[in-house]
Amino acid sequence: MHKAGFVNIVGNPNVGKSTLMNLLVGERISIATFKAQTTRHRIMGILNTEEMQIVFSDTPGVLKPSSKLQEQMLQFSESALQDADVLLYVTDMVETPDKNQDFLDHVARMQCPVMVLVNKIDLSNQEALEKKVEEWHHALPQAEIMPISALNKFGVDRVLARIKELLPESPAYFDKDQWTDKPARFFVTEIIREKILLYYNKEIPYSVEVVVESFKETDRNIHINAVIYVERDSQKGIIIGHKGVALKRMSTEARRSLERFFGKSIYLETFVKVNKDWRNSDRAMRIYGYQQD
User: Fold this and answer.
1) CATH class of the 184-287 domain in this structure
2) What does the pLDDT look like over 123-145, one tens digit per residue?
3) What residues contact 77, with CB distance under 8 A and at least 6 apart?
4) Strand pairing of 114-119 and 86-92?
5) For residue 180, what is the DSSP state?
6) Is the dihedral of CA 168, 171, 173, 176 positive or negative?
7) Cβ-count burial of 98 within 10 angstroms (0-12 exposed, 13-18 middle, 19+ buried)?
8) Whether pLDDT at 31 is above 80
9) Selecting from 3.60.130.10, 3.40.1370.10, 3.40.50.150, 3.40.50.300, what CATH number does the domain 3-166 have?
10) Lowest mean pLDDT: which of 69-83, 113-127, 145-159, 244-258?
């Protein structure tokens, strides 16, 4: 008997979805920072054993869109409700079930098994946890409620064991040596964007898109040229910094992370260009891979 299926991870921003995804897959494929709206695409990570294949899918945080970019991000999250064999709805000790009621109503109507994972329980106490679990039992009576702490890896093994029990019998969907559906260039853009999220404040990280223009790989090293797009000239100046210091620091940290990720020496060149108001441009959404023609 062989099992296989899609386990889709949804929830609001800043509840730890990407950290959980990386723990479940065992690979660092989904960037996780302390800032909201970190994940912009739907990212698949594939866990293979001899008996099963679990296709995990991390999605952008659910939020009311205020730009074309956020509209596309919401569509990625909603698409995860359509093909899930098991749905993981990640929340935390602060969030209340009514935060995105429309989305939650869709979750309540799903026919597949739903697990509500209450994350960050290390920041609370038993009394508050019991109250939070009761809130979610009331909001989603059909769901299993499981307290976890992704940061401390508490409860994650129990979640994975339960997923394996719920997975349907099926042949594998992907080759057994495949661990994600994304190409190498995608993870270059994600790692660079992660460093921008960590090193720049306020609106800058959310106004940035990264495009890999050149990716040349040999047995020992990889040469990468990447362009960082911003929306305004003033943002370009901030990204570059005085005498290029800020861009150099960020690029150095990105290169180090890329070397750990690929296991090779990395030669990284980064450039900064302006694409005015790209987050509200249909053309930019297509060019940057958020929507199809």
Assistant:
1) alpha beta
2) 999 999 999 999 999 999 999 99
3) 10, 42, 59, 60, 61, 62, 103
4) parallel
5) B
6) positive
7) exposed
8) no
9) 3.40.50.300
10) 69-83
Taking only the tens place, the pLDDT of each residue in 141-175 is 999 999 999 989 999 999 999 999 999 999 999 88
Task: Please state, in angstroms and as integers, the Cα–Cα distance from residue 68 to each residue in 44, 63, 104, 172, following that order.
Answer: 23, 13, 22, 35
Query: For residue 263, how many other CB atoms are within 10 A of its CB?
Result: 6
Which tokens go with 8?
Answer: 């889709």
Tokens representing 176 are 């057994």
Q: Six-digit token pair at 90?
A: 């990640």
Q: Where are the domains of the chain?
A: 3-166, 184-287
What are 244's two structure tokens? 């290029």
